Amino acid sequence: MPTSETPHQPRIHLTEARVSYNLSQQEVADDIGTTYVNVSRWERGITRPNPYFRRKLCALFNKTEEELDLLQTRSERASKRAAVAAPNAPVVQVPVVPQTIHDPAIPLLPAIQLIGREGDLALIKQRLKGSGNMALTALNGLPGVGKTALSVALAHDSEMREFFKDGILWAGLGPQPNLPGIFSRWGNLLGISFAEMTKLGSDEARAKAIRTAIGNRTMLIVIDDAWKLEEALAFRVGGNNCAHLVTTRFPNIASHMALGNAINIRELGESESISLLNLLAPQVIYREQQKVHDLVQAVGGLPLALTLIGNYLRKQAYSGPARRITSALERLSSAEVRLKLKEPHIPAESHPSLPNEQSLSIQSIIAVTDQLLDEEARRTLYALSVFPPKPNTFSEEAAMAVAACSTDELDALSDAGMLESNGERYQLHQVISDYALLQISDDQLTSAQERLIAYYADYVEEHKKDYEQLEEESSTIEAALEIAYEVGEVYEFIKGYALLHHFYC
């Protein structure tokens, strides 16, 4: 018998059908319940789908097996005839070698390196290499702060891949995760047939099957962008030799999952923010240092905002006159422009929080959380935008008075990761404050401003000799005075200024 293999014949018609429907391999895989790896192998002619998937593909594209090149090829028929003709031919046993699994769903490394995250990476590595509960770590923080970016860097890190010698599994969740699809992909990677996974009627049964298949392997399991505790827990399927890394924007999920080992990922400092922009648009940083400094302050060191801004400035600077950079920086002085900067994503690597067709922007990733808030919590968030943003802080009493809310709404915003608290006072990040100001109606804004002026007029009267208290509230008092002047509340303005005269002098 000849030992040479017949070259694989790509299934051109199958590929053309997919492209005509404007679908990615991943989207086809999701539609029919398999992995994009299988779809790729089918299109390249490496394997042929079984009857079940052939029927699924025909129904999806409204074509016959013949029209999709799914019929048995001449080489496949010849191989089958040869096997029938020589049933006693010796079978070569290929030794089974334990396979290292690196989930194809792991996003690719970005083109630029992580800036200012050396300490975070070292701490996360230390935690993941621990044992027992120490090996379950959760990252939480604001939308766009870089939780997924850190996880991607860890998943590609050579040290981590060497330590987790049996591989890495990745589950990108988001608000509406496809749990059966992720379990099916993991099952396929771990050697569980599609038929076996199909027989399992619940996510609980699938999780148990995955746990059994993992057994004593040493693996890292990344659960990215968890929105519900139950869904995050469903993917905690590793055995004693595994570690789990969870990312979420919700502090309560991080706290529950990590059992005290949650890590709050903070925004970048000023020098780190400028370094990131320098990587993305060096010519702009060199020419417009003060305006770049102002931009960094305006977005509060949020990595996603800085990345979108840097990419935008680089495009404007590329082979264009200097005036384009100046104009671009002027446009970016508008909060609305900054929030709406957007970029298309790679279809196979869409952000788990966003629908596939939606572009990535600061506004879009904040809006996803905003839409899940109830009406009272949303109204409270918008009203709080009249406070000066981070690094300014405000008390719970002031928040309830100005937003006309209860502690329930403040707790809901804190649990959603939209409002930061140090246990005593609150902060609203710059980009969330900008977003809220764009959503609030004129009537709501006017009412919130009036309550802010009234509250701090009374506050100054009550604490006129308590300089320590006045100092703590000074930024908000100044903001209230400015608003009073702008809206024509002359009496409150003069009264406040007179009371504070000795404090400032």
Automatic annotation (TrEMBL):
What CDD domains does this protein map onto? HTH_XRE
Q: Does the keyword Acetylation apply?
A: no
On the tree of life, the source organism's domain of life is: Bacteria
Look up keyword Coiled coil and say if it applies. yes
Show where the HTH cro/C1-type domain sits: 14-68
Instruction: Locate the coiled-coil region(s) and give their ranges.
Output: 453-480
Q: Which UniProt keywords apply?
A: Coiled coil
Please give the PROSITE patterns that the UniProt record associates with this protein: HTH_CROC1 (PS50943)
MF (Gene Ontology): ADP binding; DNA binding
Q: Extract the PANTHER family matched here.
A: HTH-TYPE TRANSCRIPTIONAL REGULATOR RV0890C-RELATED (PTHR47691:SF3), REGULATOR-RELATED (PTHR47691)
Q: What is this protein called?
A: HTH cro/C1-type domain-containing protein
Q: Supply the source organism for this entry.
A: Dictyobacter kobayashii
